Each structure stands twice: as C-alpha cells, then as structure tokens.
Write the structure tokens for this entry.
Amino acid sequence: AWDIYAMSGLELGMIHSCVTMASGIVFSAVQWGKPWNWDARQTSFLIFMLIYGAYFALRIAIADEEKREANSAAYMLAAVLPMLFLVFVFPRLPSVQQATIHPNNTITEGLLKGDYGRVTVAALILVTTVSVRLLLLRIRAELALLDYGTLETDRRRTAPDPVVRPVRLPKADGG
C-alpha cells in the first residue's frame, strides 16, 4: 500500500512539474524573448524533471510487482537529495543568483505585494486544495483496483430494470 501512496504522489508531482516547465517556457518567451535561454534555473529544473521521469521509466521496465516496488522506493530514496538540491539549494547559490536572468528573492524580500501577492496566495491555496483532492482520489482508485482487481462496476449491481426502453425507428422509405 505504501507504493500506492508514493506512486500517486509522484504522478501528481510530475504533472505539477510539467505545468511548471510549460508555464516557465511561456514566461521566458514573453519576458526574455526566447522560450529557452539555458539559464541555470531552467536547466536545473530540466535535470530535476529527467530524474523524476526516470522513476516512471523504472516502474514500467520492471514486470515483477515486488521488485518494481522495492526498486522504485530505492530509486526515489537515492534521488530525493539531488532533487531537493536542484530545486532549493542550487538556485540560491551566490554564483547562480548572479548569473541567472530569473528574478531573485522576490518572496524573501517581501516583494509580493498588492494584487500580485493576493493572486499568488489565492492560486497557491486553490492549487493545493485541488492537488490534495486529486491525490486522495488517485489513492482511492488504486486501492480499489488492488482490492477488486478492476475499476469496472459489477453489472449485476446496477438498476434491475432497463432505464431506457427499446425505440422503433421508421424505415428509410418513410413507412
């Protein structure tokens, strides 16, 4: 069951990473005139996504369920430190902050003010709420699949009488 929680969370995280990368590319094109600038922060996030994607490639490559679960868990334990470094440490290194074209310290220096700050906080709350709901639904679906072997409903447990009665269509010649 722990594998279900991990996989569900990582799937949702990958979706968020893809949205982040896509919105970053759009932002970069608008703000700096090019969708990709090989900026240190862009590149480090691309490496982060490749490490993330390798988890799913590993899961697909191993057919045996127990081996897949064990190897997936081991991979993520080994990958978590480099991933945390790429997201939280690397962008804040002084040499990276001096060379990047990304804005630095917007949040830590209190520059999220007014409407921009309120919209950012509201979006964060909305995304968090939707993400938690999606995560819980995904976990629930996987647990149901584990318990029942399928996500299909049992046809015998549906309404006893047909909901729709047969309809007779007129013939093509009008009769």
The longest helix spans residues 114-148.
